[in-house]
Design goal:
By secondary structure, the protein is α/β, with parallel strands linked by helices. Helix content is about 20%, strand content about 35%. It has helices at about 20-25, 30-40, 55-60, 75, 115-125, 195-205; strands at about 5-10, 45-50, 65-70, 85, 100-105, 125-135, 150, 155-165, 170-180, 185-190, 205-210, 220-225. α3 links the parallel β2 and β3 (about 65-70).
């Protein structure tokens, strides 16, 4: 288990505290529609942190060519119908580029700054010069007004229990997912980023915001900055 991360509940738990069975149960939201509206039809897409394929599979159904990456072999066992790669995102180097690179699941808010930079460098390394990177950010109130809960229409409850400051400006966030037959908890490190800090982090890795795809600013389309001297 990574330092600062833990999880509890039935089934396998990944090094960052994610429960494989939980993520297999979570429904897909509007992510596939947001992605499809922002990129060319049938694009080659590198999905970083695919998990069990909750978004991967709908993208495949829409005709995208997806390469799915995750550090957990237990997660990747649930992904079907496409190329999968197991390994840490921050060190990934496939020696190829893609039309679209996707960094969802709030990974850009990694508590460790070096890991975050590694994620974004991986995005830049693998995106074609005329391609784009799609990034999912935390909502503005993600770390505020806790505890709070949301009852999902699919019959389970999500509780954000706490977000306590820890070293280097990161928060230790604790979440709980309650189903009729099982409960999972997850604790992880997350670094709040203002819009300005987020855009500065992108710039450090040679990326810039093209546009915010949703009114809440959670989904972002970024593009690579030209390499100097080219």
């Amino acid at each position: 288990m990574r330092e600062g991360y833990e999880g509890a509940g039935p089934g396998a738990i990944t090094p960052d505290g994610c429960a494989v069975e939980l993520y297999s149960r979570l429904p897909v939201g509007d992510e596939p529609a947001i992605i499809a509206a922002a990129v060319p039809a049938g694009a080659r897409l590198l999905e970083l942190g695919c998990g069990v394929g909750r978004v991967t599979h709908p993208l495949l159904e829409r005709g995208f060519d997806v390469t799915a990456v995750d550090e957990s072999p237990d997660m990747l066992e649930r992904v079907r119908g496409t190329r999968t790669i197991c390994g840490p995102i921050e060190r990934l180097d496939l020696a190829e580029t893609f039309d679209v690179v996707m960094l969802a699941s709030f990974l850009v808010h990694a508590g460790n700054i070096d890991v975050r930079r590694g994620y974004l460098d991986t995005c830049r390394r693998h995106v074609a010069d005329d391609g784009c990177v799609l990034i999912q950010r935390e909502g503005a109130d993600y770390h505020e007004n806790l505890p709070r809960e949301r009852v999902d229409p699919h019959g389970f409850t999500v509780r954000m229990l706490s977000a306590e400051p820890v070293s280097e400006g990161a928060h230790s966030v604790r979440a709980e997912y309650v189903f009729p037959d099982a409960t999972w908890t997850q604790t992880f490190l997350s670094r709040p980023l203002t819009k300005e800090a987020f855009e500065e982090a992108l710039a450090e890795s040679g990326l810039r915001v093209d546009r915010y795809l949703t009114e809440d600013g959670i989904w972002v389309r970024a593009v690579p900055e030209p390499v100097r001297g080219v």
